[in-house]
Amino acid sequence: MPKRILNLFIVFFLLNLTLQAAEVDTVTTYSNSMKKEIKAVVIKPDSYQNHKKLPVVYLLHGYSGNYSDWIKKVPEIKHYVDRYQLIIVCPDGNFNSWYLDSEIKKNSTYETYIAKELVSFIDKNYNTIAHRNGRAITGLSMGGHGALYVAFKNQDVFANAGSMSGGLDLRPFKDNWELDELLGNYENNPERWEENSVIMLTPLLKPNHLNIVFECGVDDFFYGVNVEFHEKLLEEKIPHRFVSSPGSHTWEFWANSISYQLQFFNKYFQQTH
User: How many structural domains does the chain have?
Assistant: First the structure.
């Protein structure tokens, strides 16, 4: 190929990539339940201006993280919104909220914020499929627990739920991550720890009502509770997809996981819309 034609081809290719780029917004939402402003990243596909109603994936960060973690650590998610024609929302879940409505820490009501206040804001301000069939929620570590926790307790809001390296049973970790600030001392409040652990919420589930996927690396400190959760779902005959694969509690693992989970959610969105 002549050099001039090759150069023109490269320019055209790069220009096309620019024109087809996803758009990343940082928005400020308001939580009436916590009386404060909370930021979120919203990633829209290149086709957004076509005013097509799009499905939304809510993507939660882990302990000590914030709303910007995913876009900084896994910038490839910008390409996934173009590939699958969906919106990704990365909310802020505070340093250690575990996405619970805490009875002890009254100003920490992140289940309410995610499932009601944030979803309402996104549906009001973006071209979304404002129905449970057009929503998914997933996250890593603390956010993996949070995603399944919020989805299980709000199945009228979400039809799809996932987790990556999620802390799906809080009880074995009673001395970690300031959980006692949210749930109280374990010895004096075991029932509260049970009520807020994902593994104990399976009675809320009905077969085939919630599309569930979760993954954990075999070297992850949460691997044991993920396997136990998988086995419990099998016993209770709740369909789900569990992926056990090499890896530990790392961004490299989560970058691979989110690629698969978005494909998993997209298959559901394609079937229902």
Answer: 1
Residue 3 located in a structural domain: no
Structure tokens belonging to residue 204: 């809320």
Looking up residue 257, the CATH number of its domain turns out to be 3.40.50.1820
CB-based contact 226:242 (threshold 8 Å): yes
Would 241 be classed as within a structural domain? yes
Domain that holds residue 147: 24-272
Alpha helices for 20-64 (secondary structure H): none
For the cut 90, the answer to whether the pLDDT of residue 30 exceeds it is yes
**Residue linked to tokens 């109603």:** 53
C-alpha atoms less than 13 angstroms from C-alpha of 73 in its C-beta half-sphere: 18
Q: At what angle do helices 77-84 and 251-272 cross, to 10 degrees?
A: 10
Distance separating alpha carbons of residues 110 and 223, to the nearest angstrom: 25
Residue 19 lies in a domain: no
Q: Are 260 and 215 in contact (CB under 8 A)?
A: yes
Residue 108 CB neighbour total at 10 angstroms: 22
Q: What angle do CA 162, 211, 91 make, to 5 degrees?
A: 40
Distance of alpha carbon 109 from alpha carbon 27, whole angstroms: 19
Say yes or no to pLDDT of 99 above 90. Answer: yes
Structural domain contains residue 256: yes
The model carries a pTM of 0.91
Per 3-state DSSP, the chain is made up of helix, strand and coil in percentages (nearest 5) of 45, 20, 35
Mean pLDDT of the chain: 92
Sequence-ordered list of residues with C-beta below 8 angstroms from that of 237, at least 6 positions apart, any chain: 207
Contacts of 267 (CB under 8 A, 6+ apart): none
